[in-house]
Amino acid sequence: MAGHGAGTPFLLQLSLLLLLRPGGTLGCALVAVGSPVVPLGSAITASCTIQHKLCRILEQGKVQITWMLDNKPMAGSQHRGLGGTEVSNLTLPHFNRTQAKLWCCVEWNGTKQRVGMAEIWAGYPPAKPFNLSCILNLTDYGLTCQWEQGADSHLLTSVELKCAGDPRALSSHRCRSRTQAVTGCTPQGGRSHCTVPRRLLQLYRQMEIWVSVTNALGTAESEHLHIDPMDVAKLDPPALQSIQSIPFQTDCVTLAWEVARSNAHMELQCELRYRAPEDSAWALVTGIVGQAGTAQCCGFLFGTQYQFQMRCRRSSAQGYWSEWSLGRSYTTHEKAPTGKLDAWWSTRPAGTGGQLEVQLRWKAPRRQEANGRVLGYRVTLSLRRRGRDPPTVCNTTHTQCNFSMPVGTRRVYLSAYNAAGESAATEVVLLERKGQPLAGLRAVPGGEHSLWVHWEAPPTPPAAYIVEWQRVSSEPGHCSACWQMEQDGATTTALIHGGIEPFQRYNISVYPLYKDAIGVPIHTAAYSKQKAPSYAPKLHLKSISKSDAKLCWDPVPVEVQNGFITNYTIFWANSTAEVSSAAVDPSRNSFVIQALKPSTLYKVHIMASTAAGSTNGTSLTLVTMVLDDIELQFLFFTLGLIFVLLIFLLICFQKNGRVKQQFWPSVPDPANSSLGKWVPAELQEVRPGLRLP
Q1: Which of 32, 145, 253, 618 has the most other CB atoms within 10 Å of its CB?
Q2: Quick one: fold of 239-332?
């Protein structure tokens, strides 16, 4: 009986669950809401009705109805309804969830049981789609439209692309037939594009196209497009057939092309673009009209490889351009180089008499003057006369040449040549460097790989300037100089960037060029970017005393200074951690630490600094002396003097009897005294030969 009584509450609960479970067959609870879909933040009302006739197990006691929004308890108002029902009403003034389950529960036997449920969704009316655009693919004549969705409505939404005959053109025309007013396509998987097939389109007629978005709270439509599908056709690209340079020695080319077969029945408007490998942007040629044929374009550089591409669209519409055609390469014909070469030189007397050693440097011609690939350069001492070639002192593929010439010669002639011919000779006058120098010169960083050079013009305006720069190296002759010519004599600035690297020092020189002389150069040094030195110098102990220590070091190599050394700082500390320091001018390579304590151990290190940072060197340990050198010399002198005096006194004592008598008097020998020879009388009477016992 005891076991049977204990199992009764469990059986009652189980029977209640089976009878009142949501969706149960008895259906004794009915949950109703004002609307299952509401605007986000609006109020909702709900009611739960319990029918006692269908839930007989609840007749034994009063039914207590409660509510839960998902897992959160909510308070409702309960009353008895018609037909013996129990009704609970619930009002939520602000429903701020996009989706929730509202449960109706009953209290029975101390437990809360869910007996009914209603699901509620909340969101916004659909937002208006925007940026609707369409494109017709001529391969299958499908019209693909795309758009951008508005804000998320948080509700189940259906999207449809719709099309119809334009009512402005036809009063009753439909997309394909008069029996179907509106058709279109539905995007799949939440995408924002879809394709209307050819069978639903009317080509060469105006159509109305729009996007319709619908959810439980309303419908929104995009702006309506009124287009002929052919006006938005994307054509297949044309094909370039051939490119030729005609006539010879001009900068023009003729191109032949043909259109794709799908575009053969259309009037087209085409564009051509081209560029050389060195160009960052394309040059565009517009206004090419026709289905196929040829076009002539001018303004090309000689001996230059170009890449050509072409595209087309319908000439009667503002539709889409085709993709660019496959590229076609073509190299224009060469002609002899033109223009003058910028040259710079240096001279010095040769070892043999009457000769001058010349180093001539020049800049390669610009691309628009090279007219092809330059094969080499020629330097002569005179011009060509009457078809006779002058003597050549240099024929090279490089942009510099070393040669000797008579001291009196002041002119040389420089020319460039390619496969098509040779340029006119540039006269180079080797002027003396005796003109006025600049009034001032400075350089500042222009970037990690460039420097701005600023100068003050001399009193006499020059015709041009030469800016020369060279990386500073600890190895003489390791780096060659770079240079550039500034043709404008009125300029006072120049940007140099050839071979400039960060953290490296460069010596910069500027030469004014006058008509009859070259100005004396002035110089400066600069870094494009600085940082802390790669390492600090190593300290060496040169001398030490009880209060001073002289240190020396080797300068940091210029390649690893990484900037201008602003100062060295010497730090020293004893065993009690008393730290002292002193700044040293970067031009010095030694320093004397003063006021040290005698017989004390010190740790010393050096720090090298630039404007961008500092680097510490390794530590040096030293111990000061007990005495100074002078004190040691005095001590050794005193000890030596004492030793000498002692030796001197010893010698004097040995040589001088009077002195010896005073310190060591003479003592008589007892054996020679009268007492030593005295014999008692009894012994004198003993006979000779008789031995005493």
Answers
A1: 145
A2: Immunoglobulin-like (2.60.40)
